[in-house]
Design a protein that fits this description.
Transmembrane segments: 47-64, 71-92
Number of helices: 17
Order of helices and strands: HHEHHHHHHHHHHEHEHEEHHHE
GO molecular function, one term: stearoyl-CoA 9-desaturase activity
Domain Cytochrome b5 heme-binding: 340-418
Function: Stearoyl-CoA desaturase that utilizes O(2) and electrons from reduced cytochrome b5 to introduce the first double bond into saturated fatty acyl-CoA substrates.
Distance between the termini: 72 Å
Shape: elongated
EC number: 1.14.19.1
Length: 423
């Protein structure tokens, strides 16, 4: 199965095929940048589902008290639908990191519809395009277009949904009968599972149909959507990159990872998308991994895929080398030996006779003028080596100098002794 990155699904409601508009011959076609949406480019159906419904619910809050049982069920149902997105839409259908039986796929399809993040085929297609074209114009929710765009803008603005998304293979999704069934009946399934089911359950639990509709349905669905959307924005915005720096995905801090239902291990996910895990260490907070493992114990999930640990270790080591190289470039190591001027021994002796405090260690000429008075062994000891080859003294003849002393000495070198015979 490919790695988990819960990305916001595509359009909340299926879009009808748009028809081309014939432009008058005297006027050039009107074009707009995908980065500069306007009011006219709003996708009204998505805007209604993501913005208008939750805002309307919030306006009703003063007249609809929140009951304890409604709150508990609302939280439970939001997490249940999140699992359908994380383990179903994302890890099962988008990345095929494991295999699920028909009953489990049907449950995921129902609960996923209730999450209001579009049907499986659209969600998985956009997510595959996100991985294939990440951080490019063909990435449907590229963070390069801004935090708001990656979070929800790509859903709200229709002109950013059809023209630039890169091509991916979804032949497996087209041949999946459950995927096709859910796509065909997505709108009624979304209304039923997203709003009516919470209302009916809360009516049964505490005679709270309206509270269930407003709190567990409208508000609970919106909160669950926003948490999912954060994976496309926060998880590409905050955190470090221990596996690869070639993509924007990051390993978010633990607080954000908890907030994102374990989806904060995003740098790993983008580097190893065929792994059913995102948190690979036993103590990593990855509810999706735990749920899939539990389902496999029940025989509902099989063929769980893991990326070879040796290859994971390679990426970690390569990334450490990259970071180490970058850190090393910020340190002054002295002038490289191959960039130093070449002196013969006679030139070296001539320079010392002019009063310069020079010594030779390992054929490199060092100007120790500023260090003579600071020498830990006293100025007399180091003064006795001026104008000579002090390699033997430096390397143990008097004192075996430390690595720090070697590093300090490197910053004092000014020339290299050539092939001339020393006298």
């Amino acid at each position: 199965m490919q790695q988990l990155t819960v990305e916001p699904a595509a359009l909340l409601l299926p879009r009808k095929q748009s028809h081309a508009t014939v432009q008058p011959p005297s006027r050039p076609p009107i074009t707009r940048s995908s980065n500069s949406p306007t009011f006219l480019s709003f996708n009204l159906r998505n805007t209604f589902a993501i913005v208008i419904i939750p805002l309307g619910a919030l306006l009703c809050v003063p007249w609809v008290p929140l009951k304890n049982r409604t709150l508990l069920f609302g939280v439970f149902y939001a997490y249940l639908r999140s699992f359908a997105i994380v383990t179903g839409y994302h890890r099962l259908w988008a990345h095929r990191t494991y295999t699920a039986n028909t009953a489990l796929r049907f449950i995921f399809a129902l609960l996923g519809a209730g999450a209001g993040q579009d049907h499986i085929k659209k969600w998985a297609r956009d997510h595959r395009a996100h991985h294939r074209y990440v951080d490019t114009d063909q990435d449907p929710y590229s963070i390069k277009k801004g935090f708001f765009y990656a979070h929800v803008g790509w859903i709200l603005f229709e002109n950013n949904k059809t023209s630039s998304t890169g091509h991916v293979d979804i032949s497996d999704l087209k041949s999946d009968r459950i995927v096709e069934w859910q796509r065909r009946y997505f709108v009624p399934l979304f209304a039923f599972m997203g709003y009516l089911v919470p209302a009916l359950v809360c009516e049964y639990l505490d005679e709270d149909f309206v509270g269930g509709f407003i709190w567990a349905g409208c508000i609970g669905t919106s909160v669950q959507q926003q948490l999912t959307f954060c994976v496309n924005s926060l998880a590409h915005w905050v955190g470090d990159q221990p596996f690869t720096a070639a993509k924007s995905a990051r390993q978010s801090p633990l607080a954000i990872t908890l907030f994102l239902m374990g989806e904060g291990y995003h740098n790993y996910h983008h580097e190893f998308p065929t792994d059913y895990r995102t948190g690979i260490r036993w103590y990593d907070f990855d509810p999706g991994k735990w749920m899939i493992s539990f389902l496999s114990l029940l025989g509902l999930a099989t063929n769980l895929k893991r990326f070879p640990q040796n290859e994971i270790n390679k990426s970690i080591l390569q990334r450490k080398r990259e970071n180490l190289k970058k850190e090393g470039e910020a340190v002054d190591w002295g002038v490289p030996l191959d960039e130093l001027p070449v002196w013969n021994w006679e030139e070296y002796e001539e320079q010392t006779r002019t009063g310069r405090n020079l010594i030779v260690i390992r054929d490199a000429v060092h100007d120790i003028s500023a260090f003579v008075a600071e020498h830990p062994g006293g100025p007399a000891l180091i003064a006795g080596a001026i104008g000579k080859d002090a390699t033997e003294l430096f390397e143990g003849g008097v004192y075996g100098h430390s690595n720090a002393a070697n590093n300090l000495l490197d910053n004092m070198r000014i020339a290299i002794i050539g092939d001339a015979t020393k006298t």
